[in-house]
C-alpha cells in the first residue's frame, strides 16, 4: 500500500503555518504545546511539521513518542533527545545517566542534585552547540504519558527548566490535555510559549479533508459515503481516516454502504457507536493484521522478531507483516523505526470494544500474557551472556574501544531492564498469584544485588497494579518488600512514616499471623537506622521468639546476631555475648552452610571480636576477627573483609596499638577500588585512620598536669586532619548521615588542637561550628553517643579558652537531657565531671574540684576510655595535680578520694600509692599550685 505511505498532510493548515512562522521568526520562542483529545490529529501535525521544517532548512528531530513504557522520568526523554544529536553525545549521555541512577540512593540528596544538574547541563551544552549552526526543533508526541503519575509534575518542571536554557532550539510538544499547560504557563513568558488546541473539524472541513484524500489516493468515495462519514465521524480526524482507509482497502462494513444515513444512528446506538464499528471487524480475526492489532493493544512496542515469536509466524512472514502494518494509519513506527506500536486511541478502542466482546473472561489475554512472559523471560536470560562477553572485552588495551564497549554494555543493560519489565508485567497479568512469586524473587534479587532503587521502584509500581488480585499473604510480602526499600533509603522522615504504618499493621494482626516475624524484623531494622536501639531491641527480640517458636532454623542466626548487636549498642555486654553465641550455635546446627549463612556466621564472629575488644579482652577479640576474615575470604567478600579489618583496627586504636591499627586500616583501604560502591567502607576507614593519627600525635610529657598543656606533633595531627576531612567529604557526598555526628565531632577536636597549639583562631572557630553541627546532627538522627560527646566537647573547648562561665550550663544540660544514658556512656559523663573539677582546680577551689574528680574518675575508669581520654591518662593528670598541692592538703584530698572510692579496688589502691608518694614528697621540698 505504497499510496498510503505517500499521503500528504490534509487540514490544520492554519496551525501548521502558524507554528512554522513562529519557529522561523521568533528567537524568544522556547515551547509550542499542542493539545487535543485522542485521535484529533496531533501526531499527523507533527509529521507534517517535520516535513515542512526540513524543507526550510531547520534542523528537526525524529518524532519522539512517549507512548512506550520506557518514559518513566525526564531523563528518559532526554535520552531520546541525546540520540538526535551527535553519536558522542548519546554515548556519553547514556554512560553518565547510568552513573546518576546508580548514585540515586548512594549520594546525599545535595550531591545527587548537583550530579543531576551537571548531567542536564551537559545535554543543554550539546543542544546549544548543535543549534549554533542552525535552529533546532524537537518534536515530541503523546507527552501526557511522560513520567510515572507520582512524579509527572516534577518531570514537567524539569522540562521547563531545560527549555529555558536553550539558546536556539524549540520544543514542540503534542498530547492530550494534562498538567503540562498549567506548569509551562507558570514557567514561561507569553512570547516564549505558544499554546494551541486542536478541535474537531466542522462539516465543511471534513468535506475538504475527504476531497483532498480522494485526490491523493486517486479514487472516489462516492457522495453518499462521504455524507455518512461527515455525519458519523463527528469531525474526528481519526474516524475520518478509518472510513477512508477501509473504503480504499475495500473492507468497508456492508451497513455503511447499504443503509440510509437516517437509519444508521439508531443502529449504532445498539453497538457502541461509529468508533466501535471501526474496530469491530477485528473480532473476526480474518487476517494476520487483525491478530497483530490485538497483540499491540496490550504488548508494545514490538519488532519483527517479537511478532514472529508471539504470533507464531515464520521470520519471513513476520517481517512482511511488520512492513505492511506500517502502511496503516493507526500503526506508528517508534524507537527509530525499529519497532511498531498502536496509536493510543486505537488501543483504547480495541480494549473497550474488541476485547470486551471476544474475551469477557480474560482467558485469551491471560494466554497471550503467558506466552509473552515466557518469551520476554528468555530474552532477559539471553541478554545476560551478551553483557558478560562485553564485560570481558572491556579490559582491552584500546581505550577508545573500551569507551565504546562501556556504551554497548549500557545499551544491553537498558534493553534488559525493559525486557524484565515486560516479562514481570505479563507474568502478573497471566496469573497474579504465580506471577507475584516470580516478581518477588526477581525484584528482591535486583534489590539485594544491584541496588538499582530507581528500577526497583518501577517494578514495584508494576506489582501494585495487581495488588487487588494477589492473596493476603502476598499483600503482606509486598508491604514488607516496600518497607525494606524504605530502610535502604536515606530519608529520615520516610522511615518514620513507614514505622507508623507498620506499627498500625502490627496492632491489626492476629497473634498467630505468619507475617508477624517479618513485621517485627523490619520494625527493628528501621528503628536501628534511626538509632532508637531500645525500640529496635524490643522488636527484634519478638522476631527472634517467633522464629524460634516456628523452628525456622535458617532465620535464627541472623536475627540473634541483630539482637546481640542491639544489646551491645546499649552496653549490655553479657546479653550481647549470649545472643551472639545463640546465633552461632543455631548456625552450627545447619548441615550445609551456603554463602548467606557463611556471611552471617562471619558477621557474628566480627561482632564478638568487637565486643571482646570493648571489654579489653584483646586476645579473644583478635581470634574472632581472624575467624571472621577467614570466613569472608572463603566467599571472596573483599568488602566484608575490609569491614572486619576496620573493626579490628578500631579496637587496636582504643588499646593504643596505633602502628598495627594503621597497618590494618591501610590494608582495608587497599581493598576498596571503587568509591561509588565502597563509599561507606572508605568513610569509616578514613575516620578510624584520622582517630589513630590524632591519638598517636600526642607528645608524651610526664610533667603535664592539665589537658591544656598537652602538646601534639603538628605533622601527625595534620595527617589526622586530612584523613578526617576525606571521611567527611565521603559522608557528605554519599549521604552517610549516620556517620556524620562522629566525623564532625572528631574533626572538630583535631581542628581545635591544631588551632590552640598554633594560635590560629580561625581553626578554633571552625572547630566550634563543626562541634555544634555534630550536636545538632546527633539530635536529629538520635545518635545519643555523639550528642553527649559533642556536648562534653563544648565544655572542653570552653575550658581550653578559659571561658568557664557556660561549663556548668553544659553540665546541667547533660544531666537534664541525657541522664537516662549515663550507664551507657559513662566515659562522657565522667569527663564532664572532670572538666568541672578542672575549672574549680584552676580557681583554687580544691575541695569542690576533688569532689568532682571523686564522681567523674570512677565513671571514666569503668569505661576505660581511649587515647587522650583513657583512664590511665586521666589518673596521670590527677597525680600531677596532687603533686602541685601542699603536703597536708594533698593528704586530705587523697583521703577524701579513698573514702569515696572504697568500692573501687583498683582506684583504692591508686589512692594508697598516691598517699605513699606524697609522704616521700614530704621528705623533699613542698610543692604549691602555681
The geometry reads as elongated
Per DSSP, the total helix count is: 43
Q: How does the helix and strand content classify structurally?
A: mainly alpha
Number of strands: 10
Mean pLDDT: 89
End-to-end distance, in Å? 108 Å
- Poorly predicted ranges: 1-7
Question: Roughly how many Å is the radius of gyration?
Answer: 37 Å
- Helix coverage percent of residues? 55-70%
Strand content: under 5%
How would you summarize the topology of this molecule?
Layout lengths: L1 H4 L7 H13 L5 E5 L6 H14 L3 E2 L3 E2 L8 H10 L3 H17 L5 H23 L4 E6 L10 H13 L4 E7 L4 H8 L5 E5 L5 H15 L5 H11 L3 H12 L5 H5 L5 H8 L2 H7 L7 H9 L7 H7 L4 H11 L5 E4 L4 E4 L1 H15 L4 H31 L5 H32 L1 H18 L3 H12 L7 H17 L3 H17 L7 H14 L3 H17 L6 H14 L3 H16 L6 H20 L3 H17 L3 H18 L2 H13 L4 H22 L1 E2 L11 E2 L1 H20 L6 H19 L2 H20 L3 H17 L6 H12 L7 H17 L3 H18 L7 H13 L3 H14 L4 H18 L8
Parallel strand pairs: 1-5, 1-6, 2-4, 3-4, 4-5
Antiparallel strand pairs: 7-8, 9-10
Helix pairs in contact: 2-3, 4-5, 5-6, 5-20, 7-8, 9-10, 9-11, 10-11, 14-18, 16-17, 19-20, 20-21, 20-22, 21-22, 21-23, 23-25, 24-25, 25-26, 26-27, 27-28, 27-29, 28-29, 29-30, 29-31, 30-31, 31-32, 31-33, 32-33, 33-34, 33-35, 34-35, 35-36, 35-37, 36-37, 37-38, 37-39, 38-39, 39-40, 40-41, 40-42, ...
Task: Walk me through this protein's architecture.
With 930 residues, the chain is mainly alpha-helical. The chain is built from 43 helices and ten strands. The strands form three sheets. Strands 1, 2, 3, 4, 5 and 6 form a six-stranded parallel sheet that branches. The radius of gyration is 37 Å and the shape is elongated. Residues 1-7 have low confidence and may be disordered.
Amino acid at each position: 500500500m505504497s499510496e498510503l505511505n505517500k499521503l500528504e498532510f490534509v487540514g490544520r493548515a492554519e496551525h501548521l503555518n502558524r507554528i512554522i512562522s513562529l519557529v522561523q521568526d521568533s528567537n524568544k520562542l522556547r515551547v509550542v504545546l499542542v493539545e487535543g483529545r485522542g485521535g484529533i490529529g496531533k501526531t499527523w501535525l507533527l509529521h507534517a511539521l517535520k516535513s515542512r521544517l526540513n524543507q526550510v532548512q531547520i534542523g528537526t528531530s525524529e518524532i519522539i513518542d512517549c507512548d512506550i513504557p520506557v518514559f518513566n522520568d525526564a531523563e528518559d526523554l532526554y535520552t531520546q533527545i541525546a540520540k538526535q544529536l551527535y553519536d558522542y553525545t548519546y554515548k556519553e549521555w547514556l554512560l553518565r545517566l547510568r552513573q546518576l541512577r546508580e548514585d540515586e540512593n548512594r549520594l546525599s540528596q545535595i550531591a545527587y542534585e548537583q550530579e543531576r544538574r551537571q548531567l542536564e547541563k551537559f545535554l543543554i551544552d550539546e543542544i546549544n552547540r548543535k543549534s549554533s549552526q542552525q535552529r533546532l526543533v524537537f518534536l515530541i508526541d503523546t507527552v501526557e504519558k511522560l513520567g510515572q503519575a507520582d512524579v509527572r509534575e516534577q518531570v514537567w518542571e524539569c522540562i521547563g527548566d531545560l527549555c529555558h536554557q536553550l539558546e536556539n532550539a524549540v520544543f514542540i510538544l503534542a498530547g492530550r490535555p494534562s498538567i503540562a499547560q498549567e506548569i509551562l504557563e507558570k514557567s514561561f513568558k507569553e512570547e516564549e510559549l505558544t499554546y494551541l488546541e486542536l478541535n474537531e473539524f466542522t462539516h465543511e472541513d471534513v468535506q475538504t479533508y475527504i476531497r483532498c484524500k480522494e485526490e491523493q489516493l486517486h479514487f472516489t468515495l462516492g457522495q453518499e459515503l462521504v455524507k455518512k462519514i461527515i455525519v458519523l465521524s463527528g469531525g474526528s480526524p481519526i474516524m475520518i481516516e478509518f472510513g477512508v482507509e477501509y473504503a480504499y482497502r475495500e473492507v468497508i462494513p456492508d451497513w455503511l454502504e447499504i443503509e440510509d444515513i437516517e437509519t444508521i444512528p439508531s443502529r449504532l446506538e445498539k453497538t457502541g457507536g461509529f468508533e466501535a464499528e471501526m474496530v469491530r471487524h477485528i473480532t473476526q480475526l480474518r487476517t494476520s493484521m487483525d491478530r497483530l492489532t490485538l497483540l499491540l493493544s496490550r504488548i508494545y512496542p514490538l519488532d519483527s522478531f517479537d511478532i514472529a515469536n508471539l504470533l507464531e509466524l515464520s521470520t519471513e512472514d513476520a517481517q512482511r507483516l511488520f512492513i505492511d502494518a506500517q502502511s496503516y494509519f493507526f500503526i506508528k513506527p517508534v524507537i527509530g523505526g525499529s519497532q511498531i506500536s498502536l496509536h493510543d486511541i486505537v488501543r483504547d478502542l480495541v480494549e473497550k470494544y474488541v476485547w470486551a466482546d471476544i474475551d469477557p473472561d480474560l482467558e485469551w489475554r491471560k494466554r497471550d500474557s503467558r506466552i509473552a512472559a515466557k518469551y520476554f523471560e528468555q530474552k532477559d536470560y539471553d541478554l545476560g551472556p551478551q553483557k558478560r562477553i562485553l564485560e570481558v572485552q572491556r579490559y582491552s588495551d584500546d581505550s577508545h574501544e573500551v569507551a565504546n564497549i562501556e556504551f554497548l554494555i549500557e545499551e544491553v543493560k537498558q534493553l534488559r531492564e525493559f525486557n524484565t519489565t515486560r516479562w514481570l508485567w505479563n507474568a502478573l497479568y497471566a496469573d497474579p498469584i504465580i506471577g507475584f512469586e516470580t516478581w518477588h524473587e526477581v525484584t528482591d534479587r535486583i534489590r539485594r544485588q544491584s541496588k538499582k532503587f530507581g528500577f526497583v521502584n518501577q517494578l514495584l509500581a508494576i506489582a501494585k497494579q495487581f495488588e487487588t488480585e494477589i492473596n493476603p499473604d502476598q499483600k503482606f510480602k509486598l508491604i514488607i518488600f516496600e518497607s525494606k526499600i524504605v530502610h535502604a533509603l536515606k530519608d529520615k522522615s520516610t522511615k518514620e512514616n513507614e514505622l507508623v504504618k507498620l506499627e498500625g499493621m502490627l496492632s491489626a494482626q492476629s497473634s498467630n499471623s505468619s507475617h508477624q516475624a517479618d513485621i517485627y524484623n523490619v520494625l527493628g531494622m528501621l528503628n536501628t537506622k534511626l538509632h532508637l536501639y531500645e525500640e529496635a531491641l524490643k522488636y527484634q527480640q519478638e522476631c527472634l521468639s517467633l522464629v524460634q517458636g516456628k523452628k525456622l532454623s535458617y532465620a535464627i542466626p541472623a536475627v540473634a546476631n541483630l539482637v546481640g548487636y542491639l544489646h551491645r549498642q546499649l552496653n549490655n555486654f553479657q546479653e550481647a555475648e549470649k545472643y551472639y553465641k545463640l546465633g552461632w550455635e543455631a548456625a552450627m546446627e545447619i548441615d550445609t552452610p551456603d554463602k548467606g549463612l557463611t556471611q552471617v556466621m562471619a558477621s557474628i564472629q566480627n561482632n564478638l571480636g568487637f565486643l571482646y575488644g570493648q571489654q579489653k579482652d584483646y586476645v579473644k577479640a583478635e581470634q574472632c576477627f581472624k575467624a571472621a576474615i577467614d570466613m569472608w575470604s572463603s566467599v571472596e567478600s573483599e568488602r566484608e573483609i575490609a569491614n572486619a579489618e576496620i573493626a579490628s583496627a578500631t579496637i587496636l586504636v582504643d588499646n593504643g596499638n596505633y602502628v598495627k591499627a594503621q597497618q590494618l586500616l591501610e590494608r582495608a583501604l587497599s581493598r576498596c577500588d571503587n568509591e561509588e560502591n565502597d563509599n561507606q567502607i572508605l568513610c569509616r576507614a578514613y575516620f578510624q585512620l584520622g582517630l589513630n593519627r590524632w591519638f598517636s600525635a600526642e607528645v608524651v610529657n610526664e610533667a603535664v598536669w592539665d589537658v591544656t598543656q598537652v602538646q601534639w606533633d603538628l605533622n601527625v595531627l595534620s595527617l589526622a586532619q586530612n584523613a578526617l576531612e576525606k571521611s567527611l567529604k565521603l559522608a557528605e557526598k554519599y549521604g552517610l548521615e549516620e556517620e556524620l555526628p562522629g566525623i564532625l565531632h572528631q574533626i572538630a577536636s583535631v581542628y581545635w588542637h591544631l588551632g590552640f597549639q598554633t594560635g590560629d583562631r580561625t581553626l578554633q572557630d571552625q572547630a566550634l561550628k563543626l562541634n555544634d553541627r555534630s550536636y545538632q546532627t546527633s539530635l536529629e538522627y538520635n545518635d545519643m553517643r555523639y550528642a553527649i560527646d559533642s556536648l562534653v566537647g563544648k565544655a572542653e573547648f570552653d575550658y581550653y579558652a578559659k571561658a568557664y562561665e557556660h561549663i556548668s550550663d553544659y553540665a546541667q544540660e547533660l544531666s537534664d537531657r541525657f541522664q537516662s544514658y549515663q550507664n551507657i556512656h559513662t566515659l562522657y559523663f565522667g569527663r564532664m565531671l572532670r572538666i568541672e573539677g578542672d575549672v574549680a582546680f584552676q580557681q583554687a577551689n580544691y575541695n569542690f574540684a576533688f569532689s568532682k574528680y571523686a564522681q567523674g574518675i570512677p565513671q571514666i575508669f569503668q569505661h576505660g576510655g581511649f587515647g587522650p581520654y583513657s583512664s590511665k591518662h586521666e589518673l596521670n593528670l590527677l597525680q600531677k595535680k596532687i603533686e602541685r598541692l601542699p603536703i597536708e592538703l594533698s593528704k586530705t584530698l587523697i583521703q577524701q578520694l579513698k573514702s569515696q572510692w572504697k568500692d573501687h579496688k583498683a582506684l583504692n589502691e591508686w589512692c594508697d600509692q598516691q598517699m605513699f608518694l606524697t609522704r616521700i614528697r614530704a621528705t623533699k621540698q613542698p610543692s604549691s599550685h602555681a
